[in-house]
PLP-dependent aminotransferase family protein
Amino acid sequence: MGKIAKNEDFLFNQVYDYVLNRIECKEWNEHDKLPSIRQLALELNINRLTVLKAYQLLKKHNKIYVKDKVGYFVQSKETVPPEYSDHSIVSAYVQKSSLSEIHQSQVDYNFSQALIDPNLLPNHYLSDYVKKVFDLYPKILATYSNVQGDKELRDALAHYFIKRYKTVLDADNLLILSGSQQGIHLIAQTFIKPRDTVLFERPSYSAAIDIFRARGAKILTVDITPDGYDLDEVEQYMKRYKPRLFYLNPTFHNPTGYTVPAAQRKELVRLAEQYRCLLLEDDAYHDIYFEKKPPAPIYTFDTSGTVIYLRSFCKYISPGLRVAAMICQSSIMKSLISVKALTDNGSPLLNQKIFLHYFSSPRLQQHIDKLRIALQVRKEIMEEELNHTNWQWNSPDGGLNLWVQLPNDQSTEVLLTKSMAYSISFVPGPVCDPLKTLSSWMRLSYSYTNENQLREGLKKLIHAAK
Ligand SMILES: Cc1ncc(COP(=O)(O)O)c(C=O)c1O
């Protein structure tokens, strides 16, 4: 099966390149009609679907266009902004503003992924727990998980949150998710109708923007700064526009790395209660601090069930296990369980058990302690290199990214085009901006590439910017 898929992938890429080469060598000119799918499939002796897939991707990358019932034609260069036209990854990104397009590019210096270098993750220990889990639960693959999540795992997490934050909760307030992104999606599906207003930080986590947009929400933004939010503005918005929900990532925020101060957290809960706005607190980076622990999560100030708390464990334990948890009050939980049941009928039990046994072991703490040091070193290396420029950023106390501004309104989208030629990727500001501007900003992740590559890649990036 794997072999066939690989073979198909290979053919599909070949067809894509075959057509693109002919266009680039001007064998096929602008507005020329391409061979029909049937013709090309016959000519190359391959499946028509493979040709169709390649044509669709070429269309997406603005290399060809389709005329209904007539066929496919070579796209003219004028329809693509000239500075983006020479790199398919960048042109696809410009059309869709989609982060996944950037991540798909294979580069030597990857500053676009807010992911931790696999060499810093506990892969080796996790494989021990895989074995342990099969010994303890030999029939584990023969059953589903409870939709809300494995009870043993929910008990362990409830115990952890109570001990750590002295909050009142039990296993019934916890929903286990396949990644926190699933949590954002479930909330959007459950609570947001088209034309509801959703408040967002600006900038924000791009997938969350896309999820709420896809739900038809009207998006309103408040700036996040190193000092948090302008709470007067937040109050004005809540009063005037009555947002259904405020999506926030207040601790080592993606993409800026900023942390909302403790004093604002309590006040936010008060405002949200007063104006009946749900707070969706996304806390994917809480444990990735360098020196000092961040303030307690906003949900710990909540006594009336206004805050829905999302905690991912994917980033620093295992992105592949896709384990995250949501904490919320019981009436919200009921609706979410119904939607989760329709979505996947519960997250994979095997993943939950592997996670549980690793999470409950002392190895986790040892791993995080080492990881914090390694990430801080990488952040400092990135900053050392950037100190040779006149670019601006605020040094974060945790998280995976620097949020950097180029001087004189220079465009980071143009810089991305140039940097791709040096095999460097990063995320241009507009991707993280609900208003799609912030064009002189970019997110540089220091967590994925190793120390040597960081130095080397940054030197090249700075050179490209010149
Ligand atoms: C703020 C934020 N929330 C959620 C996620 C998604 O995390 P998960 O892997 O748990 O779905 C990310 C990943 O980049 C993120 O940055």
In short: The longest strand covers residues 197-202. Residues 109-119+365-465 form a domain with the Aspartate Aminotransferase, domain 1 fold (CATH 3.90.1150.10). The mean pLDDT is 90.
